[in-house]
Design brief:
Shape: elongated
Largest sheet: 9 strands, mixed
Radius of gyration: 18 Å
Helix content: 10-25%
Strand content: over 45%
Distance between the termini: 53 Å
Number of strands: 9
Structural class: alpha+beta
Order of helices and strands: EEEEEEHEEEHHH
Length: 178
Amino acid sequence: MKITDKETLYQGHYKLQLYTVTDGEKEFKREVYHTGTAASALVYDTKKQKFIFARQYRPAMEQDLLEIVAGMLDSPDENPEDAVKREMEEEIGYAVDELQLIHEFYPAPGAVAEKVFLFYAQVSHQVSEGGGKDSEHEDIEIVEMTPQEMLDHTFYDGKTIMAIEWAKNHVLPTLMKS
């Protein structure tokens, strides 16, 4: 298969393109939604012994969503580690003590050209109030949860679910013993 044409249908906060794809003698079209590259982190405060989440309104869901810290890389040359550290300070007000890459993945590769870097971050001190950036129209509520509260809560965001499933095998066995 080969992409033979890309037509931009819409360019706003995100971009929607129409791809023409050829497969031998066959040709077909697919819409591709470009959001960019994102960095996200499951955050654990080692002093409070709580996980820190962000609750914010998500227009695509038409409601508030509780999720891990996440945001887009500001430029193609920004690295995911710097982006997630920036997002953590903006959204929840924490500086990073330790950062570990869990995985990088494509959440919906059939129609969305987005790559997500997923991290686990340990923190111990808040350096600002957090709450998001007004210029990005963010109004974020910081939510703290014990490991058990996190396990008992039902999450709907894919990257958050993936991070928690990772934590069940790599972090929670140690945390739940103490």
